[in-house]
């Protein structure tokens, strides 16, 4: 699978490129936001590793412009302790984030969790057995698409996974811990708001179709997809 790393730290890019290549990935590196955006828009990648602090265009602007036309999975590389960067990145449509400095193995685990979804797509046949329909929401498990009253929802890969999990469990409470482990492939850390932000993004996109709230927050527990009207 082909990955794109957009980071102005050439030393880090070289180290991670060697490490990820040894794990079977093909890695391309770009060192400024302007060129990174151009590369991301002109080619197809399984995943983009995107630094926040970049020359020419910062990571947020790259992600914002990318999301206008593409839903390529993105992991944001943020400064340690910068909660605003993480939250803002998730609001713009990042799939996950990892604070610098990070352990190479942790980064690999995040990359595998996301690229595993892509591998899973090819193992599914496109049949009605792979479709779920609950309260105006249709999930096509084979095509990894979601619809509201036959209108497509423009979801990132992570947003799709979260919604699909909630719809599969319609009427049942799904904890944030379950969502984090099943969707992001990692344990939910203390004060980690990534799941909240993904759910918030999904709600906003569903609300554009003027239907009633489908995802209910169970304070201190998790979320439940409303099964009945």
Automatic annotation (TrEMBL):
Domain Response regulatory stretches: 2-115
Entry keyword DNA-binding: yes
Highest taxon in the source lineage: Bacteria
GO MF annotation list: phosphorelay response regulator activity; transcription cis-regulatory region binding
DNA-binding region (UniProt annotation): 129-227
4-aspartylphosphate modification, residue list: 51
One Pfam family named in its UniProt record: Trans_reg_C
Signal peptide as annotated in the record: none
Name under which the protein is recorded: Chemotaxis protein CheY
Originating species: Pseudoalteromonas porphyrae
């Amino acid at each position: 699978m082909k990955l794109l790393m957009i980071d102005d730290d050439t030393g880090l890019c070289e180290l991670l490129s060697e490490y990820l290549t040894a794990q079977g990935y093909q890695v391309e590196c770009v060192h400024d936001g302007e060129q990174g955006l151009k590369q991301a828009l002109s080619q197809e990648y399984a995943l983009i590793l995107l630094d926040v602090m970049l020359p020419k265009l910062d990571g947020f602007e790259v992600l914002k412009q990318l999301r206008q036309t593409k839903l390529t999975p993105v992991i944001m590389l943020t400064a340690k302790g910068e909660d605003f960067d993480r939250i803002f990145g998730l609001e713009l449509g990042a799939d996950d984030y990892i604070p610098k400095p990070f352990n190479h193995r942790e980064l690999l685990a995040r990359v595998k969790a996301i690229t595993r979804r892509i591998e899973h797509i090819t193992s599914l046949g496109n049949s009605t057995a792979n479709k779920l329909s609950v309260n105006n929401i249709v999930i096509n498990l084979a095509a990894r698409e979601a619809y509201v009253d036959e209108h497509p929802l423009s979801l990132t890969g992570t947003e799709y996974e979260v919604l699909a999990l909630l719809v599969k469990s319609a009427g049942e409470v799904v904890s944030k811990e379950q969502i984090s482990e099943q969707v992001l492939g990692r344990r939910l850390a203390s004060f980690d708001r990534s799941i909240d932000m993904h759910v918030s993004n999904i709600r906003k996109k569903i609300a554009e179709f003027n239907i009633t709230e489908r995802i209910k927050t169970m304070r201190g527990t998790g979320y439940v997809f409303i099964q009945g009207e």
